[in-house]
User: What shape does this take?
Amino acid sequence: MQIDGISFSILIPELKARLRDARIQRIEQDGKRSFVFIFRAQDRNYSLVLNFASQASALALVEGKSEVKSEQVSAFLLYLRKHFRSARLLDIEHQDFERFFTLKFEQRDDCGDLVKRQLVLEFTGRLCNMIAVSDEAVIQEALVHREDETQRVIMPARPYLAPETQDKYRFQELALDPTIIFDVRTLEAPFSRERFYDALLKRVPGLSPFYAREILLQADRIALDEELSERSACFKSLKSFAKRVLDQDFSPRLLYRDQSVAGFAFMPVL
Assistant: This one.
C-alpha cells in the first residue's frame, strides 16, 4: 500500500529527530527507482530507504548501515554521489498532510565554499520523483524528467514548482461539522455511500483510499451498535477520524495478509 499524507505528517517529525545534523556517508541504488541514503547522526548510522515506483512507493528509516550495493549505476546516482555525499542535513520541510517533502542540505563545493542544496521527495502516485533543486528553486537534476508542457515540467535549469495542493478542509473544521464535505445540493439529496466515499477523497486532507474505506467500515459498525442511519453513522465515523488525527491519537501497527506484511496503519483497523 502506498504511503498517505496523514502518515507523512506522523513520520516527518520522527525523521527530523533521528536525522538532526546528519551527514550522508553513502548513497546506493537498489533498483531502477529505489535508493538508499546512509546517514551518520548522533553517533549512530541510519539507512533512509526510498522507493519511487509508481505502484509501490515507500519510505523507511532503519537504524544501522544498509548492506545494499548498487547493482546498477545510473547517471542520477552519479549526480547524487557527486553533489550530496558528505552533505549535512539542515532541515526537513513538509506541508501538513501532503505527500511530498524537502530535505535541505549544506555542502562544500570544489572550491571549499558552502553551498545549500535541496532534495525534493515526491511520493505522488504515478508522478513519484526525486528532484535536486538549488537554493534558488531551480531544478538541477531529477530521477524522472518530464517535458509535457500541459503538466509540471521537470527538467534541469527549469524553475521548480511544487505539486498543486487541492482545496480540502482542515481537520479542525471536519471535527466540528463533518457534513461540510458535501455541497448543499448533495447534502439535501438522498444519501449515497458512493458519493460519501468520493467526497472523502476529494475533501479530506492526506486521506488515501485505504482510510476512506476504513471510515466506511467503522460507519457500518457504528450504525449496528448505535442503531443509526447510514448517513448519520458515516458522518459520525468521519468526525471520530478527524478528532483522532487532531489529538494525534496514533498507534502504528503492521498489517498482515497470509502471514506476510502487507502494509501498515496508524490506527486500529477493521
